[in-house]
Sequence to fold (361 residues):
Amino acid sequence: MNDAIRPQPGILDIALYEGGKAHVAGVQNVVKLSSNENPFGASDRAKEAFLRTVHSLHRYPSTDHAPLRAAIGEVHGLDPDRIICGVGSDEIITFLCQAYAGPKDEVVFTEHGFLMYRISALAVGATPVEVQERERTTDVDASLAACNRRTKLVFIANPNNPTGTMISMAEIERLANGLPKQAILVLDGAYAEYVDGYDGGAALAGSRPNVFMTRTFSKIYGLGGLRIGWGYGPREIVDVLNRIRGPFNLSTTQLDAAEAAVRDQDWVTKCRNENARMRHWLAEALAELGVPSDTSMANFVLARFASDEEAAACDAFLQAQGLIVRRVAGYKLPHCLRITVGDEASCRRVAHAVAQFKGSK
Ligand SMILES: Cc1ncc(COP(=O)(O)O)c(C=O)c1O
Fold:
């Protein structure tokens, strides 16, 4: 390679994102609990809409996503003009960094925050700033103390991945109130639908000039394979992000499936209720085996082991039985395993396998 050809500063500092494993060598019929996917899949209405798009594959998709934005607006009571849709919420995070941060700017996120915040900040040459959490929970005072005149974006996932913990809206408001005036608070609501009665920060993003919310169809909607997310916030920010959005960033298939999915709120309610039931069951079962976890508000449980070695050994034990969970050493939690809440049979299999592992020691 020619020495004169170099990527932009920051890019070589990016550690490649590792997704959840999907296979174990030599093991058939694995149960994948490593990517916080909905074990029940997408709603039938979303699947039917997906299939119908086969007849229009030769047509370019809509560039303004108007029908999907209208559907999201109707369901959530939001102004569609203040919604932007992207290739997963990952793309919205990317747009925010591209539009608002660059060299010498700082992007703040929490110690165990979602990895894409760091990656997207480095990709634009900005400086990632990581803030300590308190007992695996966002610490508003520490986040405010980390801000200065270079801070452009502050990302908070609520509930957070991989901890599953959440802070109150009063705490979020305190954070929004205390930020320097050039900084945007981004509330990542990838798991918001799992919290009964929580708006993901929509009301705040609707009323403050410095708050933006991101959401996804990858989790409760069961459309992770299709890649659709959206953002909502001040009109000025949406206008800025639309300028850098590719005109055809979403396919007709993505748009139509997402529209049908968001209109099927009965499916969302059913999945939320079943997740809450099995999450409670799984957390209790693990606790009884001496594996504690923080109260999770999302579709996974962060199981804490006595040591890094015990977590690694339990992971290997589970894998040998075809149960794939997520090691989270990359999130600075090497003594933990993140276990997606599966259907009842999968949760029972995991609890049974952890019991065997504990008994075998
Ligand atoms: C906190 C959080 N934000 C955003 C995302 C990105 O989701 P997607 O790009 O699939 O919408 C994820 C996915 O795991 C996540 O956990």
Notes: The two ends are 51 Å apart (CA to CA). The chain has twelve helices and twelve strands. The mean pLDDT is 96. Residues 36, 88-90, 114, 157, 161, 188, 190, 216, 218, 224, 229 surround pyridoxal-5'-phosphate (CB under 6 Å).
